Amino acid sequence: MVLIKGYKPNVEVILIFLHFYVFFIRACLGNWKKKKMVIVLMNQSNFVLDHLNQIDWVKEN
Fold it and tell me: Which residues are listed as membrane-spanning (predicted)?
């Protein structure tokens, strides 16, 4: 994802976690197999962590 210039990182972080939260609720409500859900949630977590690292990197430079 591309970071927009002048975009507040805190807002972006909140949006990411909102997305993650909604995804988690959907996953819990859906009739998914536990194994599949765990894999998808792990992928989502990695995406969030990567994004947070990217934001930190942008702040530093």
Answer: 13-32
Q: What is the pLDDT of residues 18-30, one digit of tens each?
A: 888 887 777 767 6
Contact at 8 Å (CB) between 7 and 51? no
Tell the residue number behind the tokens 């609720």, with chain if given.
25
Helix (H) or strand (E) holding 39, with range, is helix 34-60
18-56 residues labelled b (16+ CB within 10 A) or e (exposed): eeeeeeeeeeeeeeeeeeeeeeeeeebeeeeeeeeeebe
Helix (H, G, I), strand (E, B) or coil at 32: coil
Q: Domains of the chain: which residue ranges?
A: 9-60
For tokens 């970071």, the residue is: 3
